[in-house]
Design a protein that fits this description.
- By secondary structure, the chain is an alpha+beta fold.
- It has one domain.
- Helix content is 47%, strand content 13%.
- The protein contains five helices and six strands.
- A four-stranded antiparallel β-sheet has the order 1-2-3-6.
- The longest helix is centred in the middle third of the chain and has 27 residues.
Length: 232
């Protein structure tokens, strides 16, 4: 489980570091030449898939919530392992934990180690600790995966693009973990029930019945002795 979390974190942070230092803000490249698969660099101050909290202290509250959530998830994983829950279920929770950790790292330290990514051209740079664009827990989350698979055009001129959110590896890990639990939960817990050892039945010959010697013995012991009759 620890290895899974570390691998997801490594991939997540490696892609974010590369995009942050090699892409100008809002620049993009096609993945394998496909129009529907792109690397598109944006940053967000809020939740997954670019959602935000429109509140003065929203960023700080969200960062603190993520930290508390990860602490709870780590404790829960330890409990699941101790109780020998299904491996698939534990791995799903591990993916959620790794994704949350990945975005926490962005919020916690990216503002302290990177310069800002200019909106009108220019690359961000790694700077001495604490001299970046924001303070602790106020960094922005780096997003880069964009899959605009199809765009519909309506008669009134409006358009709708299927799967327009821009996300990162951490977001993908969280989504995969949640969907795995929702889709396979019956399979996970069915396997868990089947893996538990069945109760050993008591042999019939050891069960005392009314006609068994044990029952007769108990009956004899429980009977009160007859009182002596008076002799004339």
């Amino acid at each position: 489980m620890t290895l899974l979390v570390l691998v997801v974190l490594l991939i997540d942070q490696a892609t974010k570091f590369y995009i942050k230092t090699n892409f100008e803000y809002n620049s993009e490249v096609l993945i394998w030449g496909q129009e529907w698969a792109r690397l598109h660099f944006v940053e967000n101050e809020g939740m997954a898939f670019g959602m935000t909290l429109d509140w003065e202290y929203g960023k700080l509250a969200l960062s603190l919530f993520r930290i508390l959530m990860v602490a709870g998830l780590i404790f829960w994983i330890r409990t699941l392992i101790a109780e020998k829950m299904p491996a698939g279920f534990i791995m799903s929770v591990g993916l959620i934990t790794a994704g949350a950790l990945g975005n926490i790292i962005d919020s916690a330290i990216y503002g302290m180690i990177f310069s800002a990514s200019p909106y009108h051209g220019g690359l961000a740079e790694v700077v001495p600790w604490g001299t970046g664009y924001a303070s602790f827990l106020h960094g922005k989350v780096v997003d880069m995966f964009y899959f605009p698979m199809y765009t519909w055009e309506f008669p009134d001129g409006d358009t709708f693009t299927f799967f327009s959110p821009i996300f990162n590896v951490a977001d993908a890990a969280i989504t995969t973990g949640v969907l795995s639990i929702l889709i396979f939960q019956r399979h996970f817990f069915r396997d868990s029930a089947e893996s538990k050892p069945a109760e050993t039945p008591v042999p019939a010959e050891l069960i005392a019945t009314d006609d068994s010697p044990a029952a007769e013995s108990d009956s004899a012991e429980n009977q009160e002795p007859d009182q002596d009759t008076d002799k004339s």
